[in-house]
Amino acid sequence: MSSLTNDGASVTVTLSNCTADDARSVLARLTSRFPDRSGNGTAPADETHPTVWTAELDIGAEAPGSVPDTKIGGPVSVTAQGAPHDVSRVRAALAEDFTVQDAGSVSGDQERESQFVLVPR
């Protein structure tokens, strides 16, 4: 059993409509706070055509490590999907470094999908 498996709390985060540098910055911020279960939490260094980056964050655990410099050059579209409280924790972590604009959400029985737009401060 994985050491990341605790209460099963995870949020899938998808980034789009941004540069690879901005995706790297946002993912670095999130994965410095929450462990990445997927192993996808870094944007490729040399990709020229990716349009979507994704990570599955373990919200039930705190990731050790320092918080990286988290500047973005332009807007970043973020979709977060998971339990409502866990999605709120991801939004709060993003709000520490970016201006977060709510762009809509859909709630299910025990899950929420929320869209945000991050803009530089």
What does this 3D model show about the protein?
With 121 residues, this protein is of the alpha+beta class. Helix content is 21%, strand content 31%. It has helices at residues 20-33, 84-95; strands at 10-16, 52-58, 76-82, 99-107, 112-119. A hairpin with a 4-residue loop joins β4 (99-107) and β5. The termini are far apart.
Topology (SSEs and partners):
Elements lengths: L9 E7 L3 H14 L18 E7 L17 E7 L1 H12 L3 E9 L4 E8 L2
Short précis:
The chain has helices spanning 20-33, 84-95, and strands spanning 10-16, 52-58, 76-82, 99-107, 112-119. The protein has 121 residues and is α+β, with helices and mostly antiparallel strands.
